[in-house]
Amino acid sequence: MDALNHLVKQRGYISDGVLAESAAALGMSTAELDEVATFYNLIFRKPVGESVILLCDSVTCWMLGSGAIAAHITKRLGIKPGETSGDGKFTLLPIVCLGHCDHAPAMMLGGGLHGGLDAARVDELLAGANL
Hints:
The protein is an alpha+beta fold.
């Protein structure tokens, strides 16, 4: 996990070639390392934007408006969950739970955890992350 996290931090994502090289260096098969990489949703196996928006889609966040937040982000950035903006600045990814249920709906952006979201707060956060 440390090696995979390091690669994501350095490269942004882990390509097939880098995965194969890393597996060989670790004495693992490519399939074994890929199983680890694809199990964890913060190990990116394809390119992502400069800022990744992890939008919680747990039951609590869903009940308290994460669908409306996702729709707002989609409209504002022109991307759907799983997509990256054309300028490469943002990727929107759903995440099962951020453990911030008492402040739902919640998201992570730029390594920060943000809760109690509404459209205005999301706009603030996106403006602050505007790279």
